[in-house]
Amino acid sequence: MTIKETSAQLAARRSMDAVREKNREGWLENFADDACVEDPVGASPLDPEGKGHRGREAIAAFWDTMIAPGRIEFAMRESWPAGDRAVANVGSIFNEMPDGTRIEAKGVFVYHVDEQGRIKNLRAYWDYDTTVQAAGS
Q1: What domains can be seen in the chain, in order of their start residue?
Q2: What's the count of helices (H) and strands (E) in the chain, helices before strands?
Q3: CB burial class (10 A; 0-12, 13-18, 19+) of residue 19?
Q4: Is pLDDT at 2 greater than 90 in this prediction?
């Protein structure tokens, strides 16, 4: 039996594919104009106020700062859709930095999409401090 991917699962896959392919414009087009990226959720050095990167300009800056410099791979073990427009993916994101440092963010990555299947909210639940500490050891 073939199970059809939901709109949220398709958007999540498009997002991961664009990151792997270093396709900045494709990644940005996958987001609604008023989208918010919280990666990680809450306050961290990547988002000191913990309010997320809101709107296309802030999301583009997030790409330039956090995604563009490294080589990113995804290893999602599970995908849990909630209806057609939300999904929680469980697994790891690996980011190899230009200096060779390899970071593994283990977490839950939640996508909510709009009626057109574009990402409205991406919330990445992973712990910044634990992840960075593990990368340094």
Answers
A1: 7-136 (3.10.450.50)
A2: 4, 6
A3: buried
A4: no
Provide the β-strand partners of residue 109: 89, 124
Residue type, 107: G
Type of residue found at 93? I
What's the chain's Rg over C-alpha atoms?
A: 14
Residue 60 is encoded by which pair of tokens? Answer: 């583009």
Residue 25's H or E segment, with its range, is helix 24-29
SS (H, E, C) 114-131: CCCCCEEEEEEECCHHHH
Q: Is residue 71 pLDDT above 60, yes or no? A: yes
Select from 98, 87, 95 the least CA-distant residue to 14.
87
Q: How far apart are CA 46 and CA 62, in angstroms?
A: 9
Q: Rounded to the nearest 5 degrees, what angle is found at the Cα of 59, between the Cα atoms of 58 and 65?
A: 90
Longest dimension (CA), the chain: 46
Answer whether residue 4 shows pLDDT above 80: yes
Residue 135: its pLDDT value, please? 86
Q: Is 31 helix (H, G, I), strand (E, B) or coil?
A: strand
